Amino acid sequence: MKRGLAGYVAVAACAVFFALLPFTLSDYHRGIAAQVALYLIAILGLNVLVGYTGQISIGHSAFMAIGGYTTALMSHYHHTNLVATLPLAFAITFVCGVLLGLPALRLSGVYLALATFALAVSVPQLPLKFSKFTGGSAGISANRIVGNTWLYEVAWSAAAVAFVFTWLLLRGRIGRAFRAVRDSEVAATSSGVTLAIYKTLAFGVSAALAGVAGSLFVLATNGFAQPNEFSVTLSLKILIGAAVAGLGSLWGVVIGAAFIALLPTISASAPLIGSTHGQDVVFGAFVILVMLLLPNGVAGLLLRLSRLRARA
Amino acid sequence: MALLSLQNATLRFGGIVALDDVSLAVEAGTIAGLIGPNGAGKTTAFNVITRLYRLESGDVVFDGRSILRTPPSRIIRAGIARTFQNVELFPTMTVLENVLVGAHTTSLFEREESVRRRALETIDFVGITHVAGRRAAGLPFGTLKRVELARALVSRPRLLLLDEPAGGLNHEEVEELAIFILRLRDDLKLTVLLVEHHMNLVMRVSDHVHVLNFGRTIASGVPAEVQRNPRVIEAYLGGELEASA
Q: Is the ipTM of this complex over 0.95?
């Protein structure tokens, strides 16, 4: 019970912090902070899949692409309100996630990784195929460019909604079924958990959150959706963020998102190796370092700290 | 009327006949023992009943209906819960969470607090309240067996399949287990099918004993009858049954 209360306090403190933060930031930094929020949503989604049901995906950039193109196309052709495209992206990518989840039922481990990799590689090719409609490799833009303050507010509101949604989903019966599937398929089945339902549900929810993140991703790049923005590297980035945050727990997601959103920018200005190429080296080195020092991510660290405090 | 019956059940793995035309019946409200030497097909029978294995021929009838078309995850809804020989738990989840998963099918429209209360009551019933908040991984084997038992019981089954519940228990613990299994029948009105190597336990609690050897039924009857059966004595190399009788 005490841990539950600490959780509420932590979430409330985070909410207040992120609500007040834009007043102290420059316009440029508000844009960066909005990116943290969109990565947070993507990491939440990937965590549902990888952390809670134990299915791997390196295809989430494809779902982000679908969400991003949903926003750009709807705005471009139908002048849909940009905020209204977020739930739309959620719904469309949810369906896509479920559809991918069905064949994924027969795959696990490396084979699932390869199948989702194939998705990540092939989906960004689709806009090239239908270039009349999607603008091809040049991309397509939303009907307006949003400012960083707008972006910050919308992205962090969406992140808050996504966090509460995920938390509510995972805290009870469904979350337990997810984890049961991850821990033992035989025991889950004989306890009455239908693997097919929960595995595809996890795929759907996970993809839906990636879709919303993709929408915001497009809005954050001047409302421009372009195929090569959604490469498999983006998937890996989110996977790294999820691992840094800690798989199977929600309490590290902010740090995981900050890690992948801010580190490239920070390391670009690092002394000696700070350059466009150097920043990848610094990023890689940090990833290895974090994996070695925090095998269960930030969430694992928080858990260890709370156990230490409980003992003291 | 028999609550559960296997009718001419046959299942082969490659060249090995795991179940060879086995027929057995478990009467409602009784404890049935299923015994036999290693590899006799006891656990295979459990896996057939819970639909983890598919029969080649024959039928499994529960409560008057064939369950061969029931998917494995619906078996527990039909009223059959089981434990596993080598324990199949959710290692990263707490004992309480493990038991809560057992309530998955009976908690769809139930409030979380009410499900938790029910799970805690069941945990108390099997006597492991002191570890309810601990992760399953790392707990002693005997405790894990009880977690499984609680997870099975919380689903409010009509038939409980116990796969070697006495595994790893010492003499006093087996005595406790015997009393516990009798309580399942007498207090909870459960029907129990018990696979066990511990002869004392089986002979003491069972109303009926079914003996398999190399996938075939070699004897079936009340414990005293089965113990005297020459084919059973031969299958157990003579010694063990008499020594424990």
A: no
